[in-house]
Design brief:
Elements: H1 5-17, H2 20-27, H3 31-45, E1 50-52, E2 57-59, H4 61-89, E3 93-98, H5 105-114, E4 119-124, H6 132-136, E5 141-145, E6 153-161, E7 163-168, E8 178-179, H7 200-208, E9 214-217, H8 218-223, E10 229-234, E11 240-247, H9 253-270, H10 278-296
Parallel strand pairs: 3-4, 3-5, 8-10
Antiparallel strand pairs: 1-2, 5-11, 6-11, 7-9, 7-10
C-alpha cells in the first residue's frame, strides 16, 4: 500500500491539534474536506486512528503509533525538499535549534558578523524535543540541555544551569526562601516522559491548577514569569549541563564554523570560564526581586 503524503500530513495536523476545526485552520482547508480526507485515510490504512467526540479528538493506540512514525516521515521529507531547494539556488543556510529558555542570539550575532553570506534560521524546540531535529534534518546545530541521546553526535559542553521548582503561589512551601530535594519528597512532580505537554505554557498551567510541581532549569523560570506561580531554588539538585551538538561526519562548513564561535561566546556568557555559572546569579537575583515585590503588593 502506498501512503498518500498529503493525507499523512492531514492526520499529523489533527493529531497535534486534537481538534478538526483548529487543524483545518492550520492547514488552510475546509473542515468538512479535512474530515472526509481523514476518514478516507483510515480506510486506506485499515485501522481506526482517531476517537471523535463532540468536543475533542483522541488518538487510538493505532493512531498513536502511526503519529510517531508519520511525524518523523513528514519532517524528513520536508527537510530533504528544503536541502534540494538550497542546493539548486546555491544558498548557504544554517538552522540552529535551541531548548526552551536557552538564549543563542549573541552567538548568532557573532557568527553573522564573521559570515554574513550564511542565512540563519532558528528552531525553538518543544519541551520534550532534544536531539531529534539534528537527526531528522530540521537543524544543523543544537543548543541543548542534557539528558539527550548523543550517539552519533558531536557534543561540546558550554555551561551548567541550576534547577528550580515551580509551584502554585498557594502551595504550603511557596513562602520558603529555598528548598532541598528532601522537601519535595512525596510531592507530585510532573514527568515529561509520562505526561507529555505540548508547550511550557501548558506545563505551567497544570502546575498552577494544582496538578503537580515541575522541576525546571533556571533560565526557563526567568523566561516564564507568572503571578500565580512561584519558583524556588532547590539547593542540592544536580545542575543541568548545556551543550552544543551537531551530527558527526555530516557537518556543513557553516555548522562547523558556528560551533567554534558559539562555543566561545556561550561559555563566556554562562560564566563557565570562571568555573561557575555566573549567569545563574543574575537569574537568582531576579527571582528574589519578584518574590519580594509580590509580598509587598
Amino acid at each position: 500500500m502506498d501512503l498518500d503524503l498529503r493525507k499523512l500530513r492531514y492526520f499529523v495536523a489533527v493529531a497535534e491539534h486534537r481538534h478538526f476545526g483548529r487543524a483545518a485552520q492550520a492547514l488552510f482547508v475546509a473542515q468538512p474536506v479535512l474530515s472526509r480526507q481523514i476518514r478516507a485515510f483510515e480506510d486506506e490504512v485499515g485501522y481506526r486512528l482517531l476517537d471523535r467526540t463532540t468536543r475533542s479528538v483522541e488518538l487510538t493506540p493505532a493512531g498513536r503509533q502511526l503519529y510517531d512514525e508519520a511525524r518523523r516521515i513528514t519532517t524528513v521529507v520536508d527537510a530533504a525538499l528544503r536541502r534540494v531547494r538550497e542546493a539548486d539556488r546555491g544558498e548557504q543556510r544554517l538552522v540552529v535549534a535551541f531548548s526552551p529558555g536557552l538564549r543563542v542570539s549573541e552567538a548568532i550575532r557573532e557568527f553573522t558578523a564573521r559570515h554574513p553570506e550564511v542565512a540563519i534560521d532558528v528552531l525553538p524546540l518543544r519541551w520534550w524535543e532534544q536531539d531529534a531535529p539534528l537527526r531528522d534534518g530540521r537543524a544543523h546545530v543544537g543548543f541543548l540541555r542534557r539528558p539527550f541521546d548523543d550517539a552519533g553526535l558531536r557534543t561540546v559542553p558550554v555551561g551548567r544551569e541550576h534547577k528550580v521548582v515551580c509551584l502554585p503561589v498557594t502551595h504550603p512551601l511557596a513562602g520558603r526562601a529555598a528548598l532541598t530535594v528532601a522537601d519535595l519528597d512525596g510531592e507530585p512532580i510532573l514527568d515529561v516522559r509520562k505526561r507529555r505537554t505540548s508547550s511550557l505554557d501548558e506545563k505551567f498551567e497544570l502546575v498552577a491548577s494544582g496538578q503537580g510541581l515541575a522541576l525546571v532549569p533556571l533560565s526557563v523560570a526567568g523566561s516564564y514569569a507568572r503571578p500565580d506561580l512561584v519558583y524556588l531554588r532547590v539547593t542540592d539538585a544536580l545542575p543541568v549541563e548545556t551543550c552544543l551538538a551537531l551530527p558527526e561526519g555530516g557537518s556543513s562548513g557553516p555548522a562547523s564554523a558556528f560551533l567554534g564561535i558559539a562555543t566561545a561566546t556561550l561559555r563566556r556568557l554562562s560564566g563557565e570560564d570562571e568555573g561557575e555559572a555566573g549567569a545563574d546569579r543574575g537569574w537568582f537575583d531576579e527571582i528574589d526581586d519578584r518574590r519580594r515585590a509580590r509580598r509587598q503588593s
